[in-house]
């Protein structure tokens, strides 16, 4: 069995485990909430499932797909997926993750079950012509009813470094710098990345000196 752990996922995992409170402003911005920085929050175990895919040589392999980030704040559960590029399977993966999460918090009795679905959003690190502005899952029922379960995507290419600092969206910083991957790897040009990293460093120090942010884990 192969477990996919891209570099972006590893960065996301480190931040959510060691600096989970940095995500409160992210949740507020995406889902239009007003949670305070010291709100009680819980990082939930990343749920996964096994899927079968075909390799280039025609053989099959089993992969473990694991959701990136599940967080519970109060009675609400949020699912964030960090994605490098547009992916045709993203919507169906979100549906699968969401049902796994919803099942955990379902309530039922004879003849009835209520399955609360989490709020979700896909964070696209890079952008192409195919990157969708929204992710929508449409449930079609036998009686003809259709229910859209969707959310706006976060596209980091639409963010400026000033907006990230202004809104305290600090978990986006490493992914913002990832936009220079091509220049760094192919051309050896690190100038713009250094300039932006210096900007973020100076702004974070300024906010720390003013007591707006504190250096502590969790």
Topology:
Blueprint: E1 2-3, H1 7-18, H2 23-31, E2 41-44, E3 48-54, E4 60-66, E5 69-73, E6 76-83, H3 90-104, E7 107-109, E8 112-114, E9 119-124, E10 134-140, E11 146-152, E12 154-155, H4 161-166, H5 173-177, H6 181-187, H7 191-209
Parallel strand pairs: 1-4, 6-9, 9-12
Antiparallel strand pairs: 2-5, 3-4, 5-6, 7-8, 10-11
How would you describe what is shown here?
The chain is an alpha/beta fold and 218 residues long. The chain has one domain (2-159). 33% of the residues lie in helices and 28% in strands. The chain contains seven helices and twelve strands. The protein has helices at residues 7-18, 23-31, 90-104, 161-166, 173-177, 181-187, 191-209, and strands at residues 2-3, 41-44, 48-54, 60-66, 69-73, 76-83, 107-109, 112-114, 119-124, 134-140, 146-152, 154-155. It has a five-stranded mixed sheet with strand order 2-5-6-9-12, with helices on both faces. Strand 5 and strand 6 (76-83) form a beta hairpin. It starts with a strand and ends in a 9-residue tail after the last helix.
Summary tags:
218 residues, alpha/beta, five-stranded mixed sheet, three-stranded mixed sheet, 33% helix, 28% strand
